[in-house]
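Fig. S4 source data, part A: sequence.
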Amino acid sequence: MFASQNRSYRLSVEEMNHYITSCQTGGLLLIHADNTVGNCSATLLNELGYRAAELVGRSVRVIGLEETGEQLDVRCRQSKECKGPLPTLTLQAADGRSLSSRFSTMRFDGEEGGGTLLYLFDVRPVEKLTLLQKFAGTFLKDITLGVILIDTEFRLIDISEMACRVLGLDKEKSVGRPMEEVFRHVPSQHQLIQPSILNGMVVRNHAVSWTNNQERYELLLDSNLLKDEQGETVGAYVIFKDVSNLRSLEEQVQRSDRLAMIGQIAAGTAHEIRNPLTSIKGFMQVLKNTFIERGMSKEQDYTDIMLTEINRINELCSEFLLLSKPKHATMERVSLQSVMREILPIIHNEALLYGINVIYDGVAEMPEVVADGELLKQVFLNICKNGIEAMGEGGLLKITEHVLLEERKVCIEIHDTGPGIPNFVIDKIFDPFYTTKENGTGLGLSVCQRIIHDIGGTIRVSSKGFGTTFSVMIPFP
């Protein structure tokens, strides 16, 4: 009756009371401007268990209303403007029971003062939450699980806080909107949830990678339909767990297994390759000297090319052997700042060849780490050289130091302004023999990762749009 009423009426108290008294169905509640009960229909009095004399003139707090009549009217109008369902309120009966009802409002102005008339629909007891309902509420709040609920119109109905954090969503701005709008910045084929879920497509332990700004997450996703007591589909759910740390550990184990396999091969073949190479190189040098003595410049050029290639094979064997049996590491307290300052001139000289600027952003004091200083130089030189070569002509290489006191780690970040690393490549760059360089061996970063892992550290790489950042973190005692 009042669902479409948004304006205020001028009625006398007698007229209003007559209307309430004559109402045979539904619940009517008159609230005066001072937030006291003005009148109450017989139907509502019966539901509440009160007599009219026990309520009229008393504060609405007696029946459990914490909102004023004006506040209830505002809530009702806002619901209408959004074309949503009627709002609900909760009342307290005389016997302590809680009653819930949808309501509509009408404001009125009378000679004795204004107020609000409430029309209550379907007044019913508030059922206590079952154990399953309590579990569902806790489930949505679980910080380790991402939960998404959608209806049959493919709209987002609810979402857990963890899901908002991982997916980069604002809950208040997302709930109630179509899923296409929620993920409008993601191509349809790459959206986390597809409309086919409402056709009964069941997903179990589906591995998904999701990037939120520069943070990358590895997720395990489950989904299924939600049905009512009659078996009709009323929506669907998606549950996912963040397994980034587990996936990272698995990848490290897989890389270690590959390195171990390569090491076994290297142990049996590298020396056998290098021995004949030494003989070949020796005879080539003899031939070169002979060609020089006889003025055979063309043949001398050929021998120079062959000697260069032999040296390249020899270097590859050296890196191969380092994977199988790293050289003896001298573990001692090392200042990373000293290590960086020793290699900076080399990095600057390399950068000058490509017209690249180098910025070194150091900290005042940095704790010492336990490591082999020479191996650390190899790691940082390799990463810096890769960044310089990736930029080509011109660019900026920035080296930044951090001290993570809470984690008891020191961090060296090396950032270049090159073209960046595509997502489909970034997971493979530490794999042995994977390289994007024309003449690369694909062993440099594998060796670097092994050196850092052996001292309890980690190497992480991130790339977004343009530029790449390598973060080397090493624990300090």
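Fig. S4 source data, part B ends here. The longest strand covers residues 215-227.
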